[in-house]
Amino acid sequence: METDVGVSTSEEANGSAAKKKPTVVFVLGGPGSGKGTQCAYIVEHFGFTHFSAGDLLRGEIDSGSENGLMIKSMMNEGKIVPSEVTVKLLQKAMEESGNEKFLIDGFPRNDENRAAFAAVTGIEPAFVLFFDCPEEEMERRILNRNQGRDDDNIETIRKRFKVFLQSSLPVVQYYESIGKVHKIDAARPVEEVFESVKAVFTSINEKVKPHGRVQQKSTLLKLQLKWKMSFLRNGVCKGY
Ligand SMILES: Nc1ncnc2c1ncn2[C@@H]1O[C@H](COP(=O)(O)OP(=O)(O)OP(=O)(O)O)[C@@H](O)[C@H]1O
Ligand SMILES: Nc1ccn([C@H]2C[C@H](O)[C@@H](COP(=O)(O)O)O2)c(=O)n1
Ligand SMILES: [Mg+2]
């Protein structure tokens, strides 16, 4: 297992008291594009914990919680559940997991989801994986899935596609505009898709290794500080 991917972009840069925030990768793509399937492989190879927002919401329905009925009816309509509910579930799951590297699958589904997660957790994703797949292929996959999901019927599937185009793609475009998206051609066999996914995680591991640029920069800053302190102590500090 190649576990690294210590891409903590959210570490507070205030010296020794820096508090490390979890590393979060958002996994996006249309319904049936293969997010859950690929996440299982990423977990196996890179030591992430996987949370599917849809699974957490289905768990909430099954638990008989007071939000259950509302969530169920929204899901059956292919609608997006209010962010307050979903973010709370994700936050609780992350806190209880004991890990600090998370794949968050099927979230954020709209701009409200995105903003609420950032506001509540203070976490921005290290990057976003986007599984790009034609609608006909996604439809075929969902109709063959046989997992007993209430929303895997043709009427709800079409509604989910519409919501994906209207609300979720703009979120992908937002992350693209800030250079955070790794787009994967998901219309290939599972193993081929995972080869591309693996390349993304491996290249990110390479970038944060001790001799990578990120590490070099912080090492240089530490060295400069050490020199300054040494000059000050010896009373020969003039030009600093
Ligand atoms: N690359 C692939 N080629 C063919 N079938 C696939 C591929 N990836 C996943 N599948 C199958 O397609 C179905 C949907 O995959 P999966 O559940 O991973 O999608 P998803 O993006 O998580 O969907 P949803 O958004 O509805 O949760 C599953 O039955 C899965 O086995
Ligand atoms: N952020 C989210 C994620 C999911 N949902 C609801 C609406 C989706 O149609 C449904 C199933 O999600 P999936 O398992 O396909 O990722 O769950 C939501 O409201 N908000
Ligand atoms: Mg899924």
Summary keywords:
binds the ligand Nc1ccn([C@H]2C[C@H](O)[C@@H](COP(=O)(O)O)O2)c(=O)n1; Adenylat_kinase_CS; 5 strands; alpha/beta; Rossmann fold; disordered C terminus; P-loop_NTPase; nucleobase-containing compound kinase activity; five-stranded parallel β-sheet; transferase; 2 domains; 240 residues; binds adenosine-5'-triphosphate; ATP-binding; binds magnesium ion; 9 helices
What is the C-level CATH assignment of the largest domain?
Alpha Beta
Give the SSE string: EHEHHHEHEHHEHH
Strand order of the largest sheet: 2-3-1-4-5
- Give the CA-based shape: globular
Number of strands: 5
Put simply, the count of helices is 9
Structural class: alpha/beta
* Uncertain stretches of 5 or more adjacent residues: 6-13, 211-217, 235-240
Content of β-strand = 5-15%
The set of bound ligands, ions and cofactors reads: adenosine-5'-triphosphate, ligand LCLUPRNS, magnesium ion
Taken together, the total number of domains comes to: 2
What is the CATH homologous superfamily assignment of the largest domain?
Answer: P-loop containing nucleotide triphosphate hydrolases
Alpha carbon gap, first and last residue: 47 Å
Mean pLDDT: 87
In which range does the helix fraction lie?
A: 40-55%
Q: What is the C-alpha radius of gyration, as a whole number of Å? A: 21 Å
Largest sheet: 5 strands, parallel
Which CATH architecture of the largest domain would you pick?
A: 3-Layer(aba) Sandwich
Fold-level CATH name of the largest domain:
Rossmann fold
Subunit structure: Monomer.
GO biological process, one term: pyrimidine nucleotide biosynthetic process
Binding site for a ribonucleoside 5'-phosphate: 58, 79-81, 106-109, 149, 160
Enzyme class: transferase
